[in-house]
Amino acid sequence: MTQLETDPQADPGSRATFDSLNPATGDVVGTHPIHTEAEIRAAVERAREEAVWWSALSYAERERHLNTWKGAMTRRLAQLAGIMHLETGKPHGDAMLEASLAIDHLAWAASHARKVLGRRRVPSGMIMANQVATVEYAPLGVIGVIGPWNYPAFTPMGSIVYALAAGNAVVFKPSEYTPGVGEWLARTFTEAVGRPVLQVVTGLGETGAALCRAGVDKVAFTGSTATGKRVMAACAESLTPVIIEAGGKDAIIVDEDADIVAAADAALWGACSNAGQTCIGVERAYVHERVYDRFVEVLTEQARGLRADADAGAQIGPITMPSQLALIRSHIQDALDQGGRAVLGGVEAVGERFVQPTILVDVPEHSLAVQEETFGPTITVAKVRSMEEAITRTNATRYGLGSTVFSQARGMEIASQLRAGMTAINGVITFAAIPSLPFGGVGDSGFGRIHGPDGLKEFTYAKSIARQRFKPALALTTFTRTEKAEARLASLIAMLHGRGSTLPKG
Ligand code: NDP
User: Fold this and answer.
1) Which residue has the CA at smallest separation from atom 40 of ligand 1?
2) Whose CA is nearest to atom 17 of ligand 1?
3) CATH pick for 250-427 out of 3.40.309.10, 3.40.50.1820, 3.90.1150.10, 3.40.630.30
4) The pTM is what?
5) For 464-485, what is each residue's pLDDT tens digit?
């Protein structure tokens, strides 16, 4: 069984369904069930049974299964990219890139789980010198993963594969715009492994809400900040922990000594790839006044070579969610109304399905295009007098997801002052493709981490064990404790911690 079993009591004729559409044409790509609350609960119960089998396997056995799945996915990469292309509209090459990176994360999680999570000895300290102390990270059980549509493979896989590698079963609710990708992932997993440790449930927002209440042990949510708050509220009812990977308003900082052509190229890719629908997309640029004019000139020149359309030659696909078009238009309009200028694109760049690249300058910091997530192929470019000003303006946001710095001499110094979960220096979005680096944000961008060692630990609980090796010289945790033992403890504490802590006189 690869798909969720449907409710046997439900009349098949009355089953509610929804269509996923090709955003470039409006054609129906596939029709999918809206799973009922009872079906979602049944999926979680089934997952709990699978978790018993899966968690009892050794790390090596799980790695072998995950590698089988990895091989199956890799051999059918073009098929996966094809579904992603149809459901999101993104160019086929971009879908291939996204799916490839997801597979690379799968490989890393599978091969590092034991090292990161396996049992290890830790020092037991002087007071408890008679104890052997060990810590290991045990799986939580069943993880509910709720994913967005913009990176329908890479983003949820950032939770799914780390949760699986840590020994959990997963029930995945993909976005209503990309259910086919979710079904493909669950189907190939079950074909490769032989058991539905990864299941998919499909439907609309309500399906995600039902998953939060279905008895899972943790919810890994990726989506907008507003929905993240609803997910947290639902999970609070049952004290179910959550990871929230939400939106961003990422900036690129360009210093006076930066390679301007490379910085413009990075800003353009960060702003316009995936039609700007990237949580870690570049939406703002702060450029040193000495190189500002040249940066705007090079960026505009490079952007003129880009085109959003449905044909294979276009580098930018459609806006996946039709309702987003009005929001993108409103941000551009607001920027222009407040004194900004469009050096490329503008309000007329927003079409019925596609948005052409738009570069805005002289936009006041309080405008929507600088403050709110636009999620379109647009960028605001502002002139700054110093890197200190660039840092202050970059940090003046309620989000804190990704960031980019272009500087020869001061890259690390600037990066370390940015209030953002991730920073790329002299590159863009590079951190997301490095499996050993944790991924996540602060503030309205959410909390918790996927990817890397932190991403594996996120789906576990720490299990601490203290084992007595021999009788203690100092018997402290007993009612037979003697005054002599207490006096010896006082001397030991004084010896260990008493020095260098003299309080100032007076
Ligand atoms: P949404 O918040 O609209 O939806 C995200 C997921 O939540 C979807 O599967 C959605 O289902 C589901 N959902 C909707 N309502 C509820 C609910 N009440 N309870 C539980 N689940 C619910 O986000 P988008 O899909 O529009 O994704 C875009 C957003 O995601 C952007 O803000 C972007 O920045 C962010 N994002 C963040 C990333 C990160 O790693 N930080 C990565 C990628 C995107 P349905 O689609 O069926 O409504």
Assistant:
1) 245
2) 209
3) 3.40.309.10
4) 0.94
5) 999 999 999 888 999 999 999 9
